[in-house]
Amino acid sequence: MNYGDRLQYALNRAGRSRKQLAAAMEISPQAIGMVLNSAGGLERKLSAINNEKAASYLGVSRLWLLTGEDEPDRQPQKIAGVGLDALIALLPENDTLLRAQVFAQASQLIISAVVDSRKMQARATGSRAEKQP
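and the corresponding structure tokens:
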């Protein structure tokens, strides 16, 4: 079973259409169709971020959707206290482009979270200062 087959299985199981999935992911139904039909004779997959969105929307395991490993219903365990290096080590060793992309995306998310946290702290500090006489 290839990626497109797993995606079709998940769509059928969830009772959703490719149009509904595309709308939920904010991508075109044609993009979903290309994955489902392995356009150009090549197996096509959604990006890592869109794989996450699709798995969540369809209620299946991200790992199963991406690789076929695990069970469709198994949801990932929460990973606490694991460094980014350890998570990247789970990726195929010879796929340096994928590793670089994942590292860049993770770094961007971490930076955004830090910036958001600092903004919230600044707002909270500012509102406390305004309340004091």
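(Above: one complete record from the training split.) Residues 78-133 form one domain.
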